[in-house]
């Protein structure tokens, strides 16, 4: 007969074996969520954000997107967007002066910084707890995220995806870990402006933009009611019809190099005016932009943004002509420097350059150069983001800000307490916020003065519109047409 103690011991072992075992601890892995911050003020910003989201999602990464303009208080985001639109339409010379002055100054002034600081807390609060990296496709967002990194309020890497071929100083923000460029030309510009880690990730474009075979080309022309055999020049005016669109359309028609096909976006009045001028193929809102590019022989554009990249992906040669001020001119210069687009600066050259692009050696070379942008990019910017964010190091803190946020040394040589350091950091942030509030008050006063002086909205336009966006394409939003105000 077994000993009683042995029996109890065996029963205890049996009971322990029947009890559920605690799960083995799971290995700690990096967060698999990327947040993309864009702004609906520009088609290029939102278009790049959508395509990055699609590619990252296909790679198995959870992606959230948010709009910086929605995070500005008191509906200032709408004022910024509407003001930018009105400035481009009514006073483009003002936009050029603002763009040039801020370019020389190395970025925005204190009013722009104060306005952007109002979004810092909201943007930080909008990031999910499992965020592993943040990607900006808008310079204002890069500025906000860079400050969050520098002040220790954001402990995940920040990437800026440069959406254009030219880089305004506002794009290069301290605290951003990696700047991703489309090509070596904008990469060199970003480095010259002080960006530390710049990588060429290549462009992104919706996969529907791809070269068309003869059958698809003819089907697209039939679908839009376009001539089957005549050369076609696609003139894209964007969602607002910004720039001398009517003048360019008439010049295209009169030079005889190609039949103009004009997309006016939401500007239906411009489309009606063009049809009254005898421009038969003038459209307002168009959902099937890939189809129009398949039908066309050359793209004529005036801003150099996302539409140009989509044309490169579709194998369509690109000409920059009568560009809008600011980023339109700098993008035209950068595209020409990269050898991927012609920049027509003399109207007398319009016919010959278009003919060479449509059916000459120049067009063949530019088609190859445009397609090579995508082939040379390798894995592309989305894979670069997915690969690199796990290894990004701490942000580079400017010495002045580092001294501001660092606690004073203990005279006895002891390390200060964590709570004390955090308290001093919070005090420093509050001082920065207070100075930002004062600047905002001054900014509001400046706006009021402008309104009182001009008696109309353009005063607000000039004060608000340029403070945030000196590179965007100014689009109020939309399903796909917004891709083509670039």
TrEMBL record:
Gene3D superfamilies: Glycogen Phosphorylase B (3.40.50.2000)
Name of the protein this chain belongs to: Glycosyltransferase
Keywords: Glycosyltransferase, Transferase
Family: Belongs to the glycosyltransferase 28 family.
One GO molecular-function entry: glycosyltransferase activity
Pfam family, one: MGDG_synth
Catalytic activity, EC: 2.4.-.-
Main EC class the enzyme belongs to: transferase
InterPro entries recorded: Diacylglyc_glucosyltr_N (IPR009695), Glycosyltransf_28_UgtP (IPR050519)
Recorded superkingdom: Bacteria
Source organism of this protein record: Streptomyces sp. 900105755
Domain Diacylglycerol glucosyltransferase N-terminal as annotated: residue spans: 67-194
Keyword Glycosyltransferase listed: yes
């Amino acid at each position: 007969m077994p000993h009683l103690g042995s029996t109890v011991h065996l029963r205890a072992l049996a009971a322990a074996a029947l009890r559920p075992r605690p799960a083995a601890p799971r290995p700690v892995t990096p967060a698999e969520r990327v947040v993309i911050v864009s702004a609906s003020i520009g088609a290029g910003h939102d278009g790049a954000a959508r395509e990055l989201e699609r590619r990252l999602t296909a790679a198995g990464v959870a992606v959230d997107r948010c709009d910086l303009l929605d995070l500005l208080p008191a509906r200032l985001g709408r004022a910024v967007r509407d003001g930018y639109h009105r400035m481009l339409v009514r006073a483009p010379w003002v936009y050029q002066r603002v763009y040039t002055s801020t370019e020389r100054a190395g970025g925005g002034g204190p009013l722009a910084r104060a306005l952007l600081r109002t979004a810092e807390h909201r943007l930080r609060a909008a990031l999910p707890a499992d965020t592993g990296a943040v990607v900006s496709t808008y310079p204002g967002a890069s500025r906000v995220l860079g400050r969050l990194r520098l002040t220790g309020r954001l402990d995940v890497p920040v990437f800026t995806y440069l959406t254009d071929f030219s880089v305004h100083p506002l794009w290069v923000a301290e605290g951003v870990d990696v700047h991703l460029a489309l090509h070596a030309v904008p990469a060199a510009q970003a480095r010259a402006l002080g960006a530390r880690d710049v990588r060429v990730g290549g462009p992104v474009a919706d996969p529907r933009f791809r070269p068309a075979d003869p059958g698809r080309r003819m089907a697209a022309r039939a679908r839009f009611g376009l001539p089957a055999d005549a050369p076609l020049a696609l003139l894209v005016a964007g969602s607002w019809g910004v720039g001398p669109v009517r003048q360019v359309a008439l010049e295209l028609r009169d030079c005889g190099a190609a039949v103009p096909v004009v997309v006016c976006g939401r500007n239906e009045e411009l489309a009606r005016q063009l049809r009254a001028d005898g421009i038969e193929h003038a459209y307002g809102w168009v959902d099937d932009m890939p189809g129009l590019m398949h039908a066309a022989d050359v793209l004529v554009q005036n801003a150099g943004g996302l539409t140009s990249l989509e044309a490169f992906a579709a194998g369509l040669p690109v000409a920059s002509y009568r560009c809008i001020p600011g980023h339109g001119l700098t993008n035209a210069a950068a595209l020409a420097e990269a050898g991927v687009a012609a920049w027509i600066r003399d109207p007398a050259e319009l016919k010959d350059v278009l003919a060479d692009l449509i059916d000459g050696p120049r067009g063949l070379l530019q088609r190859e150069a445009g397609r090579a942008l995508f082939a040379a990019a390798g894995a592309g910017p989305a894979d670069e983001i997915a690969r690199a964010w796990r290894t990004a190091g701490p942000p580079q803190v400017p010495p002045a800000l580092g001294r501001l946020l660092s606690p004073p040394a203990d005279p006895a040589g002891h390390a200060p307490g964590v709570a004390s350091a955090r308290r001093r950091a919070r005090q420093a942030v509050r001082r920065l916020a207070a100075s930002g509030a004062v600047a905002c008050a001054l900014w509001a006063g400046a706006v009021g003065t402008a309104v009182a002086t001009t008696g109309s909205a353009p005063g607000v336009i000039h004060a608000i519109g340029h403070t945030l966006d000196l590179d965007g394409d100014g689009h109020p939003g939309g399903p796909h047409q917004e891709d083509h105000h670039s």
